[in-house]
Amino acid sequence: MFFNIQRFSTHDGDGIRTLLFLKGCSLACPWCQNPESRSHKHSLLFDQRSCLDDCDLCVQMCPAITRTDKGLTIHRQAITEQQLIALEKVCPTQALTVCGEQAEADALFEQLMKDKAFYDQSNGGVTFSGGEPLMQPALVADLAQRLQQVGVSTAIETCLHVPWDNIAKVAPFIDCWLLDLKHTDDDKFLQWAKGSLKRIKKNLRQLSGIAKRIVIRVPVVPGFNDTQQELQSILDFAAGLNPSGDSNANENCRELHLLPYHTLGINKYRLLDMPYFCSDKPLNNPELLQWAQAYASEQTPLNVIVRG
């Protein structure tokens, strides 16, 4: 199950890349910019602004949708997968849209290979994203192996909040790991992201011993990890990912990207009828990001880059 194929990307790995966004995630980060990716099933988005007041096609087709004086009321939990797929086809204005599409590996591989000429010219390739792509490890391993066999570079965006077996299945076929490291405090991570930071740390330490290249990416979120103390702890942990114990040996994990929080995904929460619990303003603290870069250059072997 995937929900987007984004071509000609230049921000998620080297060169020109195609991103395959897979559905399903094991975390619930409140700042997530792709909330439609959390469910491993189809997701229904509804934009009231595009809905026609005199149209009841969706009401007639789906008993879980009713119309009142205030507009449509959607009882999302009562809608079946079959009804979801049909709803997108019945809405004349696309006020109702469905996120998610099933496809076989052969069809996806064909799509990903359409831009091989651009990959070759730019040293680019394919990046698996989500959601959490490692929740579909068999598919990712299959596609990544095929891509490597035809000389296409592979990368994956992941938080590693999955069983180690999922990671091990994919690891031989991934050239670059773009790893989210959101915090180092277990309790705060559980409170905000609803997951186990211990699992992520363990997986990350284990992966650092076998990965070809790791880029740590830190979303800097107001109220969550936007203090010098918290960023220092993250930088120190990332700098310590050294499988052999030799301070000169961890060449596969020397790069860390700071990703300032933005609000570009807020509207999706309204379309999904989901609450949004984070700030409605982007991070505006350049001094903190500059401090983190200076600290890293003086205290760690990390190359810290701020990505807009």
From TrEMBL:
<dbReference type="InterPro" id="IPR040074">
    <property type="entry name" value="BssD/PflA/YjjW"/>
</dbReference>
<keyword id="KW-0004">4Fe-4S</keyword>
<dbReference type="InterPro" id="IPR012839">
    <property type="entry name" value="Organic_radical_activase"/>
</dbReference>
<dbReference type="InterPro" id="IPR007197">
    <property type="entry name" value="rSAM"/>
</dbReference>
<keyword id="KW-0408">Iron</keyword>
<comment type="similarity">
    <text>Belongs to the organic radical-activating enzymes family.</text>
</comment>
<keyword id="KW-0479">Metal-binding</keyword>
<dbReference type="Pfam" id="PF13353">
    <property type="entry name" value="Fer4_12"/>
</dbReference>
<dbReference type="GO" id="GO:0016491">
    <property type="term" value="F:oxidoreductase activity"/>
</dbReference>
<keyword id="KW-0560">Oxidoreductase</keyword>
<dbReference type="InterPro" id="IPR058240">
    <property type="entry name" value="rSAM_sf"/>
</dbReference>
<protein>
    <submittedName>
        <fullName>Glycyl-radical enzyme activating protein</fullName>
        <ecNumber>1.97.1.-</ecNumber>
    </submittedName>
</protein>
<dbReference type="InterPro" id="IPR034457">
    <property type="entry name" value="Organic_radical-activating"/>
</dbReference>
<feature type="domain" description="Radical SAM core">
    <location>
        <begin position="11"/>
        <end position="298"/>
    </location>
</feature>
<feature type="domain" description="4Fe-4S ferredoxin-type">
    <location>
        <begin position="42"/>
        <end position="70"/>
    </location>
</feature>
<dbReference type="InterPro" id="IPR013785">
    <property type="entry name" value="Aldolase_TIM"/>
</dbReference>
<dbReference type="InterPro" id="IPR001989">
    <property type="entry name" value="Radical_activat_CS"/>
</dbReference>
<keyword id="KW-0411">Iron-sulfur</keyword>
<keyword id="KW-0949">S-adenosyl-L-methionine</keyword>
<dbReference type="InterPro" id="IPR017896">
    <property type="entry name" value="4Fe4S_Fe-S-bd"/>
</dbReference>
